[in-house]
Amino acid sequence: MRNGSGGFSFVFAMGLSAAALRYPVVSPPSRGHKDAMAKPLPAPENLLSVLPPELAAALFATARSLKLKADQTLFTAGDPGDGCYRVEQGLLKVSVVSPSGGERILAILGPGALVGEFAMIDAQPRSASVVAARDSELNFISRKSFEGVAEAIRTSIGTS
Q: Which pLDDT belongs to residue 47?
């Protein structure tokens, strides 16, 4: 997650745990620009980016479109992980409740980013809550679709 704008050190400067690194972070505003705002970093390589293009296309061909209004909750920490979402448009805020009870923002995700992929793979409950920071459009990939693509990969390389 290292980048030229200091995003890697920004995470640690904010006191976030290493677990927070599984989400992309925002780049801090430039110093000296009073109107500068933090901006989401470009979508990082993600777990699905390692798929051969034809398998990735097959997986996203089964995706279901979903729209969220600003401030609408996508999922809450503890919810079951039934699939993952790719941000097509808009911004999502990923957060957890801190030990003191306040909100700790882990990431602001923009177009191209995935959210929820770990819960989909390990079948564990969601580790963070996700809320639309702006009106957003997402594509949902179900665990069943993901498992079908995983099986296709195993079959194609002969490890069934």
A: 66
The total of structural domains in the chain comes to 1
What is the sign of the dihedral through the CA atoms of 8, 13, 14 and 19?
positive
Write out the chain in H/E/C secondary structure: CCCCCCHHHHHHHCCCCHHHHHCCCEECCCCCCCCCCCEECCCCCCHHHHCCHHHHHHHHHCCEEEEECCCCEEECCCCCCCEEEEEEECCEEEEEECCCCCEEEEEEECCCCEECHHHHHHCCCCCCEEEECCCEEEEEEEHHHHHHHHHHHHHHCCCC
Range of the domain at 126: 44-156
The model's pTM:
0.67
Assign residue 104 the CATH number of its domain: 2.60.120.10
